[in-house]
Every structure is written in structure tokens, then in C-alpha cells.
Amino acid sequence: MFSYFAYGLNISSDIALPEFKAVDLSHYDLKITLDQTLRVSDLLADELLDKAATIQLSRTKATVYVRGTGMFIVENGDLIRVIPDGQPSELLLRFYLAGTILAIALYQRNFLVLHASAVKINGGAVAFLGVSGEGKSSTAAAFVTHGHSLITDDVAPINFATDPYTISPGFPQVKLGEAMAQALGYEYERLHAVHTFKEKRALKPLKGFSLAPVPLKRIYVLQTAAEFAIAPIKASIAVTEIARHSRPTTLYHSGDATHFFQCADLVKRHQVYRLSRPKDLSLIPDLIQLVEQDLSQTIPANPDVVAR
Prior knowledge:
Elements (H helix, E strand, L loop, with lengths): L1 E5 L2 E5 L7 E2 L7 E5 L5 H4 L2 H4 L3 E5 L3 E6 L3 E6 L3 E6 L5 H19 L3 E3 L1 E6 L2 E6 L6 H10 L3 E4 L3 E4 L6 E2 L6 E3 L1 H6 L8 E2 L7 E3 L10 E11 L4 E4 L2 H10 L1 E2 L9 H13 L2 E6 L6 H12 L13
Helix pairs in contact: 6-7
């Protein structure tokens, strides 16, 4: 049995998750069990077994099936059951558990879980949202390389029980493609593997990483464009942006009323910005300078106009 702390939770696990911080537990918030007495074929219809992946999601129970890896059953945000499909690699199980499956558990625990990467700049959490391929992880890695601290990659749970709202850190790992790794000065082949067939590797920036919750400072939605620009997003549009870049929406599940009100409340408390930038890797220093300058300014919340 292994004991960890990540995303603000004490986790007891049958499966080793070395990415997480190992701790001694007197109690746990979430338990991960490995059930090798069942087969996935006992639980799924034949037509679903042929699919690459399936998901059913609710606030109380979720089932995620990944062919060749297994089925993950998440219940009430406090139990994850893992039924392997064949003999999956430990790396694959860890990949899904540390990302999508933990995000579902946090959603069930009533966090607003942004599909975002976040870094700490001047004591505050700065989150980068965007569709897959837009560069959330790469942008976070650029700021880490520039001396800022990583908070989380891909899974950013917002805690509404704190004032100000905070992001609960995950673990010190951020994914990089080969071109971005080289642009930041890393030897790609020396980075850590995160998935047996994903064309990304992991940078593990331990320096400055802390498990303490970080007050939310700024939210940027990334957008590829010919020129650099930062513009506040009108509140009504920002709610939609937050919703579409959060769990459960990114898992093809319509959120409930609680999810909608969380998105609206976040926008009410925090202005959301559109961060446009070219995908030219030689311009990374300009991107960092632009964001740092923007963060140094004081801008009224929720202006009625989009441009500034």
C-alpha cells in the first residue's frame, strides 16, 4: 500500500504513483484499489470492448474504459477501482490515474476542474487554458524554465472553499514535445517517458514546487494568432470559455447546474483574458515578457469591452 498527497488530497493506493509526493497518512481522502479478480469483459458489452475508449460520467459514479489498459471506476470522489485489461504497463496505468481519473475524482468532490496548466508568478496562480494542441503545457514549461514555479499540468482544480479562490497543486511534471523541449534547451531523449505511445516526454521541475494551495491570480485562454495580444473577454463569453475548458465538458459530458454556477462565479470573481500569440518558438521570450508586464498592471474586473 502506498500513501501520497496530490491535488490537496491524501491518497491511499494499491498502485505505485511515484510522480506524487509520498507521505505518511493517518487518514485518506481517496483510495485507489487494484482489482485483479474481475475481467473487463465481465463488466462491458462486446460492442464496447471493441472501442478504443468509452466513458460514462456523473457526480457520483464514473466508468472509464481504455482498451489495452483497463477500466477505472470512480465513485463519489473517494474511491477509484482499477480493473486491468490484460497486462497493461505500469506507465499506462499511472498516466491515466494521475491525469483524467484524478480529474474526475476532483469533479465529484465539487471542485471546478479546469483543463489547464498553471504556474506561480509573484505568489499567484496563473492558469493557461486552451484546446488540445494549443500549448498549455508548453507555455507553462516556458515560464518554469524562465524561473517561475510549476503548480500543475492539465488538471487545475479550483477550490471555492477558500478566500481568495486557490488552485491545489498536483505534482512536479509538465509534458513537452520534442521541438518545444529543444527550444527551451532540454535534451528530449533525456526527459522522462509519460506514455508508451505519446509523442511527448516529461520535464520534472522540482525547484520551487510546493504542495501548498496557491491563490488564483489570472486566467488566460490561449489562441494562435499572427501577433501578440492580451485582451479581456466579455463576462458572458468568458463563462462559456471556462465551461468548455473544464471537466466534465472536455470529457464529452454536459455539466450540471452546479458546474454552470461554478463557472459563472469564477468569472464574476476573476477576469478571464484572451492571450494571442504566434506559434514561433523563437518568440518565447517575447511571450514571457508580455505576460509578466500584463500581470504587473491593475485592470478593473469584467470590463464591458473585449479590446483594450
